[in-house]
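Action item from last week, closing it out:
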Amino acid sequence: MKKVFILLLALIVVISSIFVACAKKESEETTDELNSDTEFGFETQEVTDNKGKAVTDKDGNVVTTEVPVIYKKDKKGRTYAQLIDANGDPIEGSTIPVAEDKGDTENNSGSYGGKDPSENTTTKPNNKTTGTTKKDVSLTDSNDTTAFDGNETVPKTSATGKEVNFSVEDQNIIKSMLEVPYLYTASYENSDGVPIELATHTAVWMAEREGSSRNIYPSSPIVLNLFKYYGQTVVNFKTKCNDYAEKSNAPIKYIKKDDTFEISNYTKKVQTVSITKVEDLGDNNFYKVTADVSGCNKKKVIAIVQKNRLESSLGFSIKALKWQ
C-alpha cells in the first residue's frame, strides 16, 4: 500500500511538471505574439525648462515637440503612450495620454507620426530648394510638416496630382530609399500592409546606415527603424522574419530567446533609380514619385511617399510601391 502511494505521488509530480511546462511554453508564445505587433509612433509633448515649466515663444504660445513612443494598453484595455530612448526601449515612469481616436492602428495607415523630435513648432522655414525635375513647376517647401489625426487615407499608386519639384537633397534621399537592395521584388498598396520580405531587406539597410560594425542588435531599434522607413508598423515582423528572410535571401535572423536580431552581412546594391516626375497628391504631404529603374528586371517604379520627418536624416516614409 505504501509503495502504491509513493508511485501515485510520483505520477502526480510528473503530471504537474508537464502542465507547468506546457503553461510556461504557452505563456512564452503568447508573450511573443503580443510583442510581434508592437506599435511605435510619435506624440506631441510640451517643451519644459529645467524647472518643469512650459517653454513659450515670443508670442506666448507653448512650444511643443514630437517625441518617439511605444503604444501599450492598461488593464482596462485603454491605449497609452510610453516614451522610448534612443535604443527603442521604454522609459519607465514616462507616459503620455493618447486620444481615443489614436489608439487604433489596425488599419496600418501610418496614423502616428510627426516632425523629427529634435525640432519644435517654432522652427523657421528653410526655403533653400532647387528643383531638378521640370524647371517650370512649383517647388515644395522644405519645411512642410505632416498633421496626423488618426484617420488619414494613403493615396493609391494610380492617383495623380499637380507636378512639383523636390530639392536635390530630398530627391537624393528618396532615391537612396528606393535603392534598398531587392526592394524591387514586391509591390504593395498601403492598405495591404508592408510585405515582410521587403521589410527584411529594409531592416538590414537601416542598420547599415547607422555605420555599426556589430552583428547583433536589440529588437526594439530594428522594429522602430522599420516604422521610420515605412511610416507604419510592419505587423508580425519578429514572428515571421526568419521565414521571409530565408525566402528572400536577406541576411537577417530573429533570435527569440534573446529578443535580438542578427545581421550577418550587408547586402550589395542591386537596382538604380532615376527620378523623372514628382506629383503633389495634397492632403497631408503625400507625393507620387515616378522613376526609371535599371540593374534589375524592372524598368519603372511608382512610389507613394510622405514627407513627415519620422527620422531626421530621411524625412520621408515609403507608403506604397508599384514596380513595372
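Closing note: DSSP finds five helices and twelve strands in the chain.
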